[in-house]
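Notebook, bench 3.
Goal today: get a predicted structure for SRPBCC family protein from Halosegnis marinus so we can plan the truncation constructs. The sequence was checked against the plasmid map this morning, with no discrepancies at the termini. Length recorded as 148 residues. Pasting the sequence as submitted so the record is complete.
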Amino acid sequence: MDEIVTEIEIDASPEAVWAVLTDFEAYPDWNPALEIAGEAVEGKRLEVTMEYENTRAMTFRPKVLVMDKPTEFRWQGHLFVAGLYDGEHRFVLTALDDGERTRLTQAETFHGVLVGFINRRIGDDVEAGFNQVNEALKRRVENSSSQP
């Protein structure tokens, strides 16, 4: 098992962050690394394309495990077949300052026989990509929140 965990604080409510995070159609306007298509409903599959700096684009069809508005969005995906390189990806929104601010945790827990091999090669780039998405989400939400 291996895990990547990133966090950022956003000057907006969890509801405002959730609205941007789950508006997949608007991702091309702000998200530098992720494209998501499909309906985010527990038990359904999404089509997710991830392309972080220094990595090749990967497209997979993870299953939505948790969709708990406005606190958690979690999916599980596999590279090729289950058991080789599996990832449980999560976005957790924690209210701060009586709900006026949000701590976003974006993380992924990896399992499978190829985890050590793959993460030694791309783990740092994936972590940097998570941070890049976090920063872009923060900018998008805070700029949207400041609009009249």
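The longest helix spans residues 115-145. The chain is about 30% helix and 35% strand.
Flagging this for group meeting.
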